[in-house]
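FORM 12-B: Structure-to-Sequence Request
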C-alpha cells in the first residue's frame, strides 16, 4: 500500500490562502501571548498590592498560573498548526 498521501497541486489563489493562514496563525500566537501576559501581570500586581494573608492571594496565584498555561497552550497550538501547514506546503511542492 502507498503510505504517502496523494500529491496535490495548488493554484495561486490556494497558495495565497495558505500564506494568509500562516499569518493568521502568527496573529493567534500573539493574541495568546498578549492574554497570558495580561493574566500574569494582573496576578503579580495583585500579589504586590494585597496583603499575603488574605484569600486574594489565591486569586493572584491562579491568575499567574493561568497566564503560564495560556502561554504554553499558545506555543503548542502555533507549533502544531505550523507543522501541518509546512507539511501541506511540502506535499504540494513535490508534485
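FORM 12-B RESPONSE
SEQUENCE OUT:
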Amino acid at each position: 500500500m502507498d503510505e504517502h498521501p496523494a500529491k496535490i497541486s495548488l493554484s495561486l489563489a490556494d497558495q495565497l490562502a495558505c500564506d494568509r493562514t500562516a499569518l493568521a496563525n502568527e496573529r493567534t500566537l500573539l493574541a495568546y501571548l498578549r492574554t497570558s501576559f495580561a493574566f500574569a501581570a494582573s496576578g503579580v500586581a495583585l500579589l504586590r498590592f494585597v496583603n499575603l494573608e488574605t484569600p486574594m492571594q489565591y486569586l493572584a496565584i491562579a491568575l499567574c498560573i493561568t497566564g503560564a498555561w495560556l502561554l504554553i497552550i499558545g506555543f503548542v497550538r502555533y507549533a502544531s498548526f505550523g507543522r501541518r501547514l509546512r507539511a501541506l506546503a511540502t506535499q504540494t511542492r513535490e508534485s
